[in-house]
Specification:
alpha/beta, eight-stranded mixed β-sheet, 10 helices, 15% strand
């Protein structure tokens, strides 16, 4: 059985060698499996691809993919998935935080308990900032509300998946892939293995506030129309409040003809309603923009070059 390890890489020149060495040691301990490691350089500004190139020379089962510009982790995963050949595909991180030593626990659970996908479920995630903890919490809530993820399922980008799942996911060619959404629309036969996240080997997370917001918006709008329904419901509620308010003001004016209208309350109401209208137009515009970019053929990624020395006899 062939295993494919797919790793998106960004600013990971200092960590990749250790990550790949850890994976190789795990592979060597399980001679019943053959393997390939696909490293996808996501337009990293440092010398990450040079490190990847040296690893392809050191290991005959390592494939290097160089994306022309930074497209994000989700798009880099899609590039790696399409290059993979394995019966089981595993995704991992490039910073050493993912405990690759439990990779075969994921594989064993996948095979023995007949799951389609097995994801790591993080308990203790080590030292993280308040911002990252809030980001994780918000992402979980978003996935549950907008993508209707079952409560007994936990998803992450450290997983093992069967070939048919990855084949179905890579059929998606629009420019905004979102792993969790693609997974949940393919299968709910998902298992979990409890893991503890390690400390980062070097550097800091590539996710800032802008990228996290982009990821959340992507998850909300790519695979769900609930934001549009939320905008409709909000509009109905505001209209109802306005209708009731008009009746109340009319009754008060009838009872007390000398009552003066409040300028402050009128301006506040206008600002509130105007802000809600702009928000709803923004939600609609987000969907229309994605439709336009999809029809325009915007690519998920552009590959500058691939270093692929795989031969049937070379795969470990």
């Amino acid at each position: 059985m062939l295993l494919s390890f797919v790793i998106p890489c960004y600013r990971s020149a200092k960590t990749l060698e250790k990550v790949v060495a850890d994976i190789e040691s795990q592979i060597n301990a399980h001679p019943d499996y053959s393997s390939e490691i696909i490293l996808v350089n996501d337009g990293s500004p440092d010398n990450t691809f040079e490190v990847i190139e040296s690893l392809t020379k050191k290991y005959n089962n390592v494939v290097g993919i160089d994306i022309a510009k930074n497209q994000g982790q989700q798009n880099a995963l899609m590039a790696g998935f399409r290059a993979s050949r394995g019966d089981i595909i595993l995704a991992s991180d490039d910073d050493g935080q993912t405990p690759v030593e439990i990779s075969f626990q994921l594989i064993d659970k996948l095979i023995k308990e007949d799951y389609d996908v097995v994801c790591a479920k993080y308990g203790d995630r080590g030292k993280r900032t308040l911002f990252r903890r809030l980001g994780t919490w918000a992402d979980r809530k978003m996935v549950k509300v907008f993508l209707e993820k079952p409560d007994d399922i936990s998803t992450s980008v450290f997983f093992a998946a069967r070939r048919f799942v990855i084949d179905e996911i890579t059929r998606y060619e629009n420019p905004y892939p979102y792993w969790t959404g693609l997974l949940l629309r393919t299968t709910h036969n998902i298992g979990n293995v409890e893991v503890t996240q390690k400390d980062r080997l070097a550097g800091s997370s590539g996710y800032n506030l802008r990228k996290l917001l982009g990821l959340w918006i992507n998850g909300c709008t790519t695979f769900s129309i609930k934001p549009l329904r939320f905008a409709t419901l909000t509009g109905m509620i505001i209209a109802l409040i306005g209708f009731v308010t008009i009746i109340v003001i009319a009754v008060q004016k009838f009872v007390n003809p000398n009552m003066m209208s409040g300028w402050t309350s009128m301006i506040a109401t206008m600002l509130l309603i105007g802000g809600l209208i702009m928000m709803m137009l923004g939600v609609i515009g987000e969907y229309i923009g994605r439709i336009y970019l999809s029809l325009n053929g915007s690519p998920q990624y552009v590959i500058r070059r691939i270093i692929d020395n795989r031969q049937e006899s070379d795969v470990k």
